[in-house]
Design a protein that fits this description.
alpha+beta, Uridine Diphospho-n-acetylenolpyruvylglucosamine Reductase, domain 2, Uridine Diphospho-n-acetylenolpyruvylglucosamine Reductase, domain 3, Uridine Diphospho-n-acetylenolpyruvylglucosamine Reductase, domain 1, 5-stranded antiparallel sheet, 20 strands, about 25% helix, about 25% strand
């Protein structure tokens, strides 16, 4: 892997007391698939001030960076990642009730944590996120969703930091939402950005509605219909237009249980690829290509990956 980090920038990272820095950090430790080579540096920022200073210094030294949440919808190449991998720390992991109907969640809040908070506060609307792994920041960027809907349906405003460390507040109506995508207004889209928080519109539960029972039932249904546990990254392919989902198309092509090395198509839900223990990123990439080709041959439909491949 060609290095992208200036030695003076590396020296600044080492001296910084506001950041947690790990050089040549194996990304297999930070992705739910358990694969991936080293990042030049994994940097955890616990505050907006520390994050702003970090991206400003990275721009000064021309060092590329990428943001990683819980690592549940990504595939890191065996060769690793050039430059920085930025993770948002405890300072971005807070939830607060802005009003009776609006909840603020920092970008590093887990989706499951937000769901449990909503249940405790007797707030409806969280069902869209029930069973979705990862963080709110990642869910927002990928407009994550379930059969109940997509996160864009409950977003009121998004809080961002751009690559120069400036903060922005964008109302949901200014954002172009798509299937597994979020496009910012042109003024903000010209610079790389980091989601640092979101305001979500939730509403009080109806009389007689038990959100605790509803949440437990949603999780139970997810666990019965999808694989659960380590070695997973969520759905690997986007659902194409038409009546059949990606999982149904893969299943129809007879690919459940098909594998490359220790990377295999789940026998529970065909749109999940599973690490049986010793898979490499290259195994998953090859398996993705073979699955997509077999589906194309069987149905004429081209599948697009939903996981992000980080290099």
């Amino acid at each position: 892997m060609k290095k992208a980090m200036h030695r003076d920038f590396a020296a600044w990272l080492i001296k910084s007391k506001a950041l947690c820095v790990r050089f040549d950090e194996p990304m297999s430790r930070h992705t739910t698939l358990g694969v991936g080579g080293p990042a030049e540096a994994l940097v955890i920022a616990d505050s907006k001030k520390a994050l702003a200073e970090l991206v400003q210094k990275a721009a000064q030294f021309g060092c590329p960076w990428q943001v990683l949440g819980h690592g549940s919808n990504v595939l890191v190449a065996d060769e690793g990642i050039r430059g920085l991998v930025i993770r948002l720390g405890k300072g971005f992991g807070r939830i607060r009730d802005i009003s009776g109907k609006t909840v603020f969640a920092g970008a590093s809040v887990r989706s499951a944590t937000l769901c449990r908070h909503a249940v405790r506060q007797n707030l409806n609307g969280f069902q869209i996120l029930a069973g979705i792994p990862g963080t709110i920041g990642g869910a927002l960027v990928g407009n994550a969703g379930t059969s109940a809907g997509h996160i864009s349906e409950i977003v009121r405003e998004v809080y961002l930091m751009d690559s120069l460390g400036a903060e922005h507040k964008i109302v949901a109506s200014q954002i172009r939402w798509g299937y597994r995508s979020m496009a910012l207004p042109e003024a903000q889209a010209q610079k790389p950005f980091i989601v640092i928080g979101v305001g979500l519109g939730l509403c009080p539960a109806k009389n007689g509605q038990s959100l605790e029972k509803e949440y437990a039932l949603l999780l139970e249904r997810r666990k019965k219909s999808q694989p659960w546990g380590p070695g997973l990254a969520g759905c690997f392919f986007k659902n194409p237009p038409g009546p059949l989902s990606a999982g149904a198309l893969i299943d129809k092509a007879g690919l459940k249980g098909f594998g490359v090395g220790d990377a295999v198509v789940s026998s529970v839900h065909a749109n999940f690829l599973v690490n049986r223990g010793n898979a490499r990123a290259s195994d998953f990439i090859e398996l993705m290509e073979k699955v997509a080709e077999r589906v194309r041959q069987a149905s004429g439909i081209s599948l697009e990956p939903e996981v992000r491949v980080l290099l």
